[in-house]
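Objective 1.3, modelling of assemblies. Example input:
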Amino acid sequence: MDMAQNTAWQDERALVRACLKGDPQATQRLVARFQRDVYAVCLRLLGHVHDAEDVTQEVFLRVFRSLHCWDKSRPLRPWILAIAVNRCRTWLRQRSWNSSLHDGLHDRQVRPDPNELWELQETLQEALGQLREEYRLVFVLYHDRHLPYEEIAEILGRPVGTIKTWLHRARLELIDYLRQRGWSEGLPTHVPSLSTLDSADS
Amino acid sequence: MCRVCQLWTPLILDDPEIELPAEVRRHMELCGECRASLTVARRLAVALRVWPEPEPGGSPKAIAEKVLADRRERQQAQMRHMMAASLVLAVLAWFGLTALEEPQPDISSYRVAAQVTQTASSTEVIAASQPAISHSEHGFTDVQIARAQPSEAISDSTRYSVQELAYWFIPDSLRRSVEGMVEVVSPVLNNGTESDSALSLGDVLPVNWTSLEQLWHPLRDAGQNSLRLFRSLLTNVSQDSKS
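Predicted structure (tokens):
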């Protein structure tokens, strides 16, 4: 463990101690630190803005209710994301994916992406909805949250080898789905090329 | 999709600009399916690179306030549960301690005298089957007698000597102090004179026991007190029976 990581863990532990004492500022800081991650996972998995907001709130309620159970020797983020993943799974079981995806699409049309990439992203989100739950989880945690295999394995409670297998299958199924939806037929005009993106990044 | 492309398409997602080996490029020229898959992989890589970071709807402050409100609510609920549990424990403890403080006598073993037979040497009491003590506040000092049932059959097993009944009705502390003496002297009280008792007690009492008066007076007082109490109880019972 390097020094920066060690400092981050100590900071997390201090933050959790303050939260357990009921410090409102610490509570707000902890929410702010992980809200983006939790919300992103919820949105990618549920495909619905309002559901994602509701579940994010629920996740934090559960996090603070069981904060005293957190193992101080382990990082906080995988623990919180594991709670988020479990909440999303429960939420998904309670409603059918397809019906909410339809609502989710409407949500997005209200807020179009300024780069006009939203159609591409909609298709990607739709494709994600077709994947098995485990594959979708791994794909989102790896490609959207950019988590390492080890952390994903910790969140999902599976060996690293299984995570790699699931990611590989998720990628192949996505490519297959997108190919069937005509993504290989020629680049749409609003999809930028890699060189355009690189120049935009720089 | 062939095995070669299955291997290479996911790698493109990690690095969209990865250089494909010559044999893969040659294969793609021949195989339309693999070419399409690799094209899709490149586009997917692009889409993932520009996948926008979702902006959370609620502010951290709003969520933190909800968390704190939830905590307050849970603490209050916890407090209510603890108070309820304490109350239940206090009530149970109160009942438990009361029961420990005041052990109830075995009421069924006490009987009201239904018939008393006085002879020259002894007094025999025939007890009724109905329990004598219906309630006791402080041991044997506050005794309430239930009404006797004279019509009930009397058997030998329900005959008790006056000493036995007196033994039951005298206070516990007094009983303990005299019970040993009653046991030793009862033959004298029932059957003999003072001189006889002196003879009969000669083997039991120590040599320097000069006068039986020292033993006799307190014992007689205790016996008389017990008998007086017992007779007053019998009177109450007979009055209750008549009324």
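Chain A has ten helices and no strands.
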